[in-house]
Description:
The structure holds 2 protein chains of 2 kinds. By secondary structure, chain A is mainly α. Chain A is built from 8 helices and no strands.
Amino acid sequence: MAAARPVLAVSRTKPPDMQADDRAEVDRLNGLMLRVARQRDRQAFVTLFQHFAPRLKSFLLRAGMEAGAAEETIQDVMVTVWQRAETFDPKLAAAGTWIYAIARNRRIDRLRRDRRPTFDPNDPALVPDEADGSLDSMLAEEQTAALHRAIRSLPPEQAELLRMAYFEDKAHSAIAEERRLPLGTVKSRLRLALARLRKAMAGDDPTGENA
Amino acid sequence: MNHAPHHHPGTDLLLAYAAGTLAEAPGLVVATHLALCPRCRAEVAGMEAIGGALLSESDAATSVSAGLLSDVLARLDGPPLAEAPRRRQVTPGRTPVLPEPLRSYIGGDIEQIRWRRTIPGLHEADVACSGGSVRMMRIRSGMGMPQHTHRGDEFTLVLQGGFTDASGHFLRGDFAATDPAVDHRPIADEDGDCICIAFTDAPLRLTGRFMRWLNPLMRT
Lengths: 211, 220
């Protein structure tokens, strides 16, 4: 079995000034979302559109949509961003995460026409969060910036499967078939990638050992 | 009643849910577990953050048509896009046994389930869902389920009572995943009926000596 080879990720790690940029970029996008939410600021919305529309298009094309359908879906996503902006809370999710969840749900509506069951956070039967989650030890913005750094430092074979898992609307078994990898290898690489990224979000920077 | 679950869906399953690739039927069992499990909700939130970070990457951009922005701006103040279907209200003053999203699929709480008797000691009710078979099961207190295997995956979530099988003891909120290799025989706890939701992606096969003849009756 092709075990995951340790791959030095030095060439993929951006220099320190780029790492500071990660945080600035997260703050910039969150700030734009808050201006849309609080002031109904159309200029901020246009800036968000210019940032996210081309990325949403790549996301939707990789899931197998035609260009026309992808652009219609982008319209729906961005109109939803405007209409639901008041529910955006940067302490719960960064702007990119919030928009990702909207786009993922629209993609399911469009491609599969079945439902994605979701829990209701206000349901009286929901078991509430414990007050002190370990992930709250870092600021949400810093977590997101750390996540960006950690994604860039993933071994390429893990990063590639992770992108497929998120972007291609395929089951892990279909990914395994397409890549001619055993299903167990696909699953273990995804688990390794996720474990690494979760560590980074918890404040344990996997690139720190090279610093 | 608010037992923090000890048995959770695997990382692969939570990732498929977070990435939006899980079909509705297994998704219903996973989402119902999430309502009962703060730990897995945090896990899925982290996975969504990874999705957000991947979406935000600068090298993942494709140019859009020149008119797309003005099309969007023209729609901003138009009618709101269709909302998700509203959930059914619950009787105030009483905590439902079934959490959302399951309660909406059933059309109410546990007393709304229309049970039918399948084999002695077991009542079942189908839940309408695409992408596999989902059913509610009520196993009589102290009863063993027939020994069975599956050709595909089976996910079971306990909603009331509990059961024990070779892999452990399962209580409210606990999620059991069994793959085709497992031949198991869950036994309901003695202190009351066990109510579960179960997803299968292929029919059950009864393997106990006396149960084989029931196979043709189990799924219609």
